[in-house]
Amino acid sequence: MENGRRALEFKSFDEIMPDVEQLLKGHRTVGTWPLPRILKHLSLVLRRVVDLPASTPHDPSMEVSAEAKNHVFTTGKLPEAVPVPDMLTPESANTAREEADELRAALAHFLASPGPVIKHRLFGALTREEWHRLQLIHCAHHLSFAIPTTTTGQS
Question: In sequence order, what are the residues at sequence separation of 6 or more whose Cβ sits closer than 8 angstroms to the Cβ of residue 121?
Fold first, then answer.
C-alpha cells in the first residue's frame, strides 16, 4: 500500500479488535499519529455518529459527489488527507491498552445503537448498512498506518 501502510480490509466488526490486539503485541506506525491517537480517534468517531441527534446541523455544501461516494464504498478505501474536524482530532491519548479498551467499548456502543441518524459530513444521508460499511472502511484506513512487528498465531 502507499506510504508504507499495510493493505487492510475489515469485512466484519469482529475482525477489528483481534487486529488491534496483535498491534498491542508490537507495532510501528507510518504517518503522523501514534497508535493510541489512532485508537482514540476511532472511538470518538464511533461514539459521535450514534450519539448525535438527527437534528445536528449539516452543511450540504461539504458533500462529495455520488460518484466519489460510490468509489469509497466500492473500493473500500478512503481518499488520502481528508481533513479531520478538530473535535475528532485528539491532541493526546492514554496508553495504547487503555485506548484499545475504549475502542472495544465504542464498537459495542455503536453496534448496540439503533443509529446513526445524523447525515455524514461528506456523504450525506446513509442507511444503517452504509454507516456500518463506512465505519469498517474508516477503521481499516486508520489502522493500516500501524504495522504489526510480531507474527500472528503464537501467543
Answer: 58, 59, 62, 63, 85
Where is 135: in which H helix or E strand?
helix 128-143
77 contacts 68 by C-beta, under 8 angstroms: no
Check: CB of residue 138 under 8 Å from CB of residue 8.
Answer: no
Cell digits of residue 90: 485528539
Q: How many whole angstroms separate alpha carbon 48 and alpha carbon 76?
A: 21
**14-27, pLDDT tens digit by residue?**
999 999 999 999 99
Report if pTM > 0.85.
yes
68: left (phi over 0), alpha (psi -120 to 50) or beta: alpha
